[in-house]
Design goal:
Radius of gyration: 23 Å
Number of helices: 4
Structural class: alpha/beta
Shape: globular
Number of strands: 9
Helix content: 40-55%
Largest sheet: 5 strands, mixed
Distance between the termini: 52 Å
Order of helices and strands: HEEEEEEHEEEHH
Length: 215
């Protein structure tokens, strides 16, 4: 290429190259944040699996119907013990978080902007209601808890909203027995049946997908 036309050609292609470079940088940033969030979510599951299995039974990712919801609800974590049934929701939010138990929406303040987010305590309460109906147990045995998995500042204190590093101490501080052995066994059996049914459904769907792809 003649030197006189080389520079104009490079300049003409620069906007497209810059756009591509920007897209790659943004994609990497989003992927990195997503990977970090998934890692922190895994830390919650790992911490719960580390509880004494003779005292606590951990059931992750349960799906069950709710009388007032059109679709089944998904509860990230349930822990059954004589000290209560812990219904745990996880939230992947960062920044400064403001909101009360009764607010329809909370406020998330980031470095350059502010946004409104769903009240996680309301969602947690919906999950408690679904589990209450499924297990046919009264309200007192249930202990709702919201865990923020990303680094954040909880500007409005709540006794049942904690960061990941306070999850296990929060559970272990509950030492008053409120469920007898028969109620614990009943809840354990019901949730085990539900988990096994969900696992069978997942395996069936995976098999059907494999057969479809093989045809």
């Amino acid at each position: 290429m003649h030197p006189a036309t080389l520079v104009p050609s490079l300049l003409a292609g620069w906007p497209g190259f810059a756009a591509l470079l920007l897209c790659l940088v943004l994609a990497k940033a989003v992927f990195t944040l997503s990977a970090r969030s998934r890692y922190r979510e895994m830390r919650v599951a790992s911490a719960l699996r580390g509880l004494d299995t003779a005292t606590y039974r951990h059931f992750p990712g349960l799906r069950l119907p709710h009388p007032d919801e059109r679709r089944p609800v998904r509860i990230p974590h349930v822990v059954v013990s004589a000290y209560g049934i812990f219904v745990i929701d996880t939230v992947r939010r960062r920044g400064s978080i403001f909101g009360t138990e009764y607010d329809a929406r909370w406020t998330q303040r980031l470095r350059f902007h502010t946004r409104r987010i769903a009240n996680p305590m309301r969602r947690n309460r919906i999950h408690v209601e679904a589990l209450m109906a499924y297990l046919d147990l009264p309200d007192p045995p249930f202990r709702p808890l919201v865990v923020f998995t990303n680094p954040c500042i909880l500007e409005t204190p709540h006794s049942d909203v904690v960061p990941t590093d306070r999850l296990i101490p929060w559970i272990r501080r509950n030492k008053v027995t409120i469920l007898d052995s028969s109620m614990v066994a009943r809840a354990d059996a019901r949730l085990s049946d539900l988990r096994d049914a969900l696992n069978r459904t997942t395996e069936t769907q995976a098999h059907e997908l494999h057969v479809t792809q093989a045809v």
